[in-house]
Structure formats: C-alpha cells, structure tokens
Design a protein that fits this description.
By secondary structure, the protein is an all-alpha fold. It folds into two domains: 43 residues; 34 residues. Helices cover 82% and strands 0% of the residues. The chain contains three helices and no strands. The longest helix is centred in the N-terminal third of the chain and has 39 residues.
C-alpha cells in the first residue's frame, strides 16, 4: 500500500509540475506577443467616426447631459 501511495504522490507532483510549466510558458508567450504588438502598433485606433455618426441624430443637450452623468458616476466610483 505504501508503494502505491508513493507512486500516486509522484504522479501528482509530475502532473502539477507539467501544468505549472505550461502555464508559465503561456504567460511568457503572451507577454512577448503583447510587447511585440505595442512596439509595432503603438497607437490605438480612434473611435471618432463612430461618435460623430451617432451624435448627428441626437440633440446636443442630451449628449451633454449623458456626458455629465457618466463623468459624475466615474468620479464617485473610482
């Protein structure tokens, strides 16, 4: 029975080690890809076109009220 338990513990540690190694390699690969993307594509795309398209049919006072409400909510919940 002792031999069976030690074999099970050995198998458990081997499996946990393999999973840990895989996850570590995954984190390193994601960090490398992130740094490469930020190096070659440093600026984020702007959404100005979508904002002007939506705002063309809405009254400017409604947009101002929504903007003020969002700003107040963000300032309270920081």
């Amino acid at each position: 029975m002792t031999e069976l338990m030690s074999s099970g513990v050995e198998l458990m540690f081997a499996g946990m080690g393999i999973v840990f190694l895989f996850l570590t390699m995954l984190v390193v690969a994601i960090n490398i890809m992130s740094s490469l993307v930020q190096r070659f594509f440093p600026d984020a795309p702007t959404l100005v076109v979508a904002a002007t398209t939506v705002s063309s049919g809405i009254d400017k006072s409604i947009i101002a009220a929504i903007t003020a409400a969002v700003h107040q909510h963000r300032s309270k919940h920081k």
